[in-house]
Known about the structure:
The complex is a heterodimer.
Chain A: H1 6-30, H2 46-53, H3 55-88, H4 95-103, H5 110-128, H6 136-161, H7 164-172, H8 177-206, H9 209-214, H10 222-231, H11 236-267
Chain B: E1 22-31, E2 34-44, E3 49-53, H1 60-68, E4 75-80, E5 83-84, E6 95-98, H2 110-120, H3 125-138, H4 154-166, E7 172-176, H5 184-201, E8 204-209, H6 212-218, E9 221-226, E10 229-234, H7 236-241, H8 246-251, E11 256-266, E12 269-274, E13 279-284, E14 294-299, E15 305-306, E16 315-326, E17 330-337, E18 342-348, E19 363-368, E20 373-376
Parallel strand pairs in B: 3-8, 3-9, 6-7, 7-8
Antiparallel strand pairs in B: 1-2, 1-4, 4-5, 9-10, 11-12, 11-14, 12-13, 14-20, 15-19, 16-17, 16-19, 17-18
Helix pairs in contact in B: 2-3, 2-4, 3-4
Amino acid sequence: MLKKHPLLVLALVAGYAFLYAPIISLVVYSFNDSRLVTVWGGFSTRWYGELMNNEPLLEAAWMSIKIAGLNASLAVVLGTLAALALVRLRKQRGHQSLGVMVTAPLVMPEIMIGLSLLLLFVAMEDVFGWPQGRGMLTILLAHVTFSMAYVTVIVQSRLAHMDRSLEEAALDLGARPMTVFFTITLPLIAPALGAGWLLAFTLSMDDLVIASFVSGPGSTTLPMVVYSSVRLGVSPQINALATIIIAVVALAVLITGVSLYRKEMRQA
Amino acid sequence: MASMSPSPADNVWTASDEEPIVRIEGVTKTFGATYAVDDVSLTIQRGEFFSLLGSSGCGKTTLLRMLGGFETPDSGRIYIDGQDVTDLPPYLRPVNMMFQNYALFPHMTVAQNIAYGLKQDRMPKPVIAERVAEVMALVQISQLAERKPQQLSGGQRQRVALARALAKHPKILLLDEPLGALDKKLREQTQFELVNIQERLGITFVVVTHDQEEAMTMSSRIALMHDGRIEQMDTPRRMYEFPATRYAANFIGLVNLFSGYVTEHEDDLVTLHSDEAGCDLQVHHSQPLASGMEVTVAVRPEKIRVYEQHRDLPNRIHGVIEEIAYLGDVSIYHVKLASGKTIQFTQSNVQALAEQPLTWGQEVALGWSADSCGVLTQ
Lengths: 268, 378
């Protein structure tokens, strides 16, 4: 056991303060009555009220949620298929290069992805007439492109650690490969799919750079609105919005944490 | 002492006109440049308890996996009950397998695990429930139906795996090291239980094992594999008493080997000279052997007697006792011969305290009869 050395305690407090002080101040100032973010003017919930009436902001938030949800679902399907190919077709030629290509977006600068996708979409519209203009569809396609790579990596590691004999046992008991996939493989990699879905959702909600490149009129995402409004001066509405998001995320983390804990207790 | 001629019961599985349940014809399987299974042919009769025995990497598991449909042979054919199954996928074969690590589905209860195969056949629910209950009773795990695999002990998991593989009433049950993960006591118990279940159901069992004792205890016949080939295929008794090769003699039980050359072959008695033994040896052997041929004589340690007590023994050697291993039921003596070779012989400890026990450094004369040893030409 480490003794409670004063320096250690200090380091701990400083670490937590560094992580959470900004967030706490953000939450506190969301209840500030003053228009100036840095000056305390008494407790108020007026910014929450104004936020509810801020149509563009709410629309952008809804747009972001829609894109994030669709993106996460598509990325999980494609990422799982890619992971299956990478883990199961090891002996096939081209396996190595497939692995590198699928996971390349993990290391590519976002700005490069954004720019190259924009150029691709413009060129495609010229040649095929699709996608028409830029908007929610192009943002979704761009997000799926890179978040799929994250899902692939997560599912791949789960699949690699999965015992192959489980699937062989199912085959041996008369299940056809499709049945084996849906009754054995899928339930066993479900935690990875869940983690992948959440990560893809978060990545999409969070993305500003790529979305800025491939968005069009009428398809502004939440990060874009926040970023552009901050440039004009921070409104306490943003604090209110951030507080709501933090609350939702904290709740989600709490619920998954508790349910995972319960599941483990049941199995032990 | 056991009679050296094979008993009639030993021939039940080797000579039968019935269509065999398994016929493997010239099967070869390579992984890269290595021959995992090299031109193996064998037949297994209905209702047999057949063991594939060998050390790791000898190809026994690959052969079993080819029976299950998890590997496809490079050449050769496999027939099950007269049907060519060489290219059939596992889910179309009338066999089930018990996997080495049991491969129980962790997200299903014991009952769901056992019902899985029956559900694939689209059986009506009541029939499935009945079958599951029946097979759980057979292996005595009825009280575990609602448990998850993680909540079971190793022995219980083994039973669930067995129940799951038996539930579909396969024509053949394949077992990959079925007792490998159990501790010694449990393993010995389970050996007899497996044999009982096999006899009750009449299903053909094909077992892969590296444990020669296990194979000897359970099997009707054993195929000893070595480097992808079958070294010898016989009943446990014949395997032990009449090993066909040096490898087979060494793999199963303890053995003393004397190399020498044939000096005389008269009727079925071979006389040969061995410098290692330091004398002439006499062995019963029915196949003709040319004079001067290099051969090996194999003698099991328990066939060797102390000469003073058995003066009629034709094979006689002298040596000095070097080591004594007291195992309780028997003692193993290491005896150094004049040629420098060390041999082993065992004696049952019939009396708790023998009057004149053999001790270290004592000179002994040992002997064995002509029909309690064998000649190996390979």
